[in-house]
From TrEMBL:
The protein's name: Short-chain dehydrogenase
Keyword list, A-Z: Oxidoreductase
Natural source organism: Luteibacter rhizovicinus DSM 16549
SUPFAM superfamilies in UniProt: NAD(P)-binding Rossmann-fold domains (SSF51735)
GO cellular component, one term: membrane
Lineage: Bacteria, Pseudomonadati, Pseudomonadota, Gammaproteobacteria, Lysobacterales
Any one Gene Ontology molecular-function term assigned to this protein's record: oxidoreductase activity
Pfam family for this entry, one: adh_short
């Protein structure tokens, strides 16, 4: 199932999936409207059956500028979409997963939620909150045998990165700096390919790495190495120990 606000973009993706022999159903919904999210999840489970995987990927870049200069409504809208949308879908999907004791949730996050991204503060704060939400949710779901991951897919030459680079020459100084930084990131070793990012996501969904539930995981991580080292940090559950030794 694919869910988004744009019917045209949904159909573009669905067409490519069908061309490869896949089956897909599309649903237009605003992720910030909780009743609509609940309705679409109910409809999906009636038509397609139980949901075993939930990937929360809806997100916007949000306003760019110093925190005290950005429009409050734009800031809050970013939080509602990037964080609230994921929470709304989890609220709708997880009860049935928990009853079946089967399911995995992947919240798509960013290194913006781990490191400082000045002047992109709404996006950064929303992703930091989503990482913490994933950590807490994983703990709450542990007794129901559900796994939750906060996955950073890497800096990719598509989506929000392209939007940032497309900021034109008349952009504000802050927007121009962000656009230049994004270009530099895509030309550096920090960049990732869509193929490698998708492959890492599939590994997380395979069940082989459920011991990493609750963790912030990136496209660049060696998942087998992280699994081997989980025991060294199990007592404190301090993932920083794993990251620093990886």
């Amino acid at each position: 199932m694919l869910v988004a606000r744009s019917a045209a973009e949904l159909e573009d993706v669905a067409r490519s999936i069908r061309a490869e022999g896949g089956k897909v159903a599309t649903y237009v919904v605003d992720v910030t409207t909780k009743p609509a999210v609940a309705r679409v999840v109910e409809e999906v489970e009636e038509q397609l059956g139980p949901l075993d995987v939930l990937i929360n990927n809806a997100g916007v870049r949000g306003p760019i500028g110093n925190a005290w200069e950005c429009d409050w409504d734009d800031w809050w809208s970013t939080i509602e979409i990037n964080l609230g949308g994921a929470v709304a879908f989890c609220h709708a999907v997880i009860p049935n997963m928990a009853r079946r004791r089967k399911g995995r949730v992947v919240n798509i996050v960013s290194e913006a939620g781990v490191f400082r991204w000045p002047t992109v503060f709404a996006y950064s704060v929303s992703k930091a909150a989503l990482i913490k939400f994933s950590e807490n949710l994983a703990s709450e779901c542990r007794d129901d045998s559900l796994s939750v991951f906060a996955y950073h897919p890497g800096f990719l030459p598509l989506g929000l990165a392209n939007e940032a680079m497309d900021l034109h020459a008349s952009a504000t100084p802050a927007e121009a700096r962000v656009a230049a930084w994004c270009r530099a990131q895509l030309e550096s070793s920090s960049a990732a390919s869509p193929g490698s990012s998708a492959a890492q996501l599939v590994r997380l969904l395979s069940g082989a790495y459920d011991v990493l539930t609750g963790r912030y995981v990136t496209v660049h991580d060696d998942l087998d190495l992280l699994v081997a080292r989980v025991g060294t940090a199990a007592a404190s559950r301090d993932y920083r120990m794993l990251r620093s030794s990886a």
